[in-house]
Amino acid sequence: MKPENKVFVKSGITAGFIFAILMAGFNYSDGEPFKIFKFLFHFFFFGLSMGLLARYNHLKISRKKNADNQSKSN
Question: In terms of Cα–Cα distance, which of 10, 44, 38, 11 is closest to 25?
Fold first, then answer.
């Protein structure tokens, strides 16, 4: 696995875990019981979304830098 992809996976896992904990805490403060399926859904869905967005943004920025570098060299 490329080092870049490892960063995207780690950032997705971290973001998903933090979001899931915050949502579970919010639901607990409303008096709802802890639901593992809801926690896992938040963890995977948000984590996957954030990981994919991080990858997209990284590719977009790197393509722009490459295009700028090629235009400067010409």
Answer: 38
